[in-house]
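For the sake of transparency, this paper describes our internal protein records without simplification. The record that follows is passed on verbatim for readers who wish to inspect the format:
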Amino acid sequence: MRNHTPHVAELVALALIASLPVLSPLARAQNPSGDTPPKAPAPSKVNKPAPAAPAALVPFPAPLITEILYAVPTGADGDANADGIRQVSGDEFIEIVNPHNKPIDLRGWTITDKRGSEKSKSGAPRSGAVRFTFPPCMLKPGQTAVVFNGYGCTWGEDVGDEKRAPAKASAKFGGAIVFTIKNLYERSSLSNSADWVLLSDPQARPVHLIRWGNVDGKVEGVLLEEAAPSAMNGSIQRAGLTGPLEPHRDSDSLRFSPGLFDNPLADGYRRPAPVRAPTLAPNGKPPADAPSKDAPAIEPSPTPDPP
């Protein structure tokens, strides 16, 4: 019997067969032809969109109330409008912000307290009421507007009123649009103990209400109603664009910060605090009976006359 010597071609074929991968039964079932499956395409790099601003607490085009000073601190610490004089009523303020990514028109929006939201028996506004209706004014995304009570206050810059908006934003109040109610009576003020601030749209529909204390009454149909904590030594403010209301806190130990709301739609950082002027007497010196900066007592807002 003759020994068979394999030819070179046979050896090459055997080597190729040996180099083929051995498929498992599962692999053979999934790929009966034995062909090598094509490689999956590498995932393409897609630029992730920038994080969207948090959803606003009120629908477009409504502004949002972000700070209220209803209990003005004593002494120079209460000089919220920085005119050098602390006014127990005049330095009260309400701050609102545009929480949307588009401009809004404030024309016809109205701010009232409880008495300003009601009518007397004759149908006229009740005495002692706080009420302000905005004139035509465009508020940019993230921009704030501040409405001061204004009783007895003076202004070192142009501020608006119900007839017109100021010519430009206030550098002193962080780029806010500043208004004054120009209240003529000290008793036209927010109550320290129990009251509310209501923001209504140009059709007089209630949109945002913040109440504090044991205030009676109810506003039907309001879209957003919040209870504010007690704040007898400064303002109440919102913790961020969608955060809760809390007593004012600031790294500079200020008791309020009109126009300086920290909004990611605006600057994304805390703006510098406004300069506070000391309380001075007519002779240019601090009055002898001026309350101490550290005095804990708060002078209550006057109680309005009954209707």
Observations:
- Confidence is low (pLDDT under 50) at residues 267-301, 303-307.
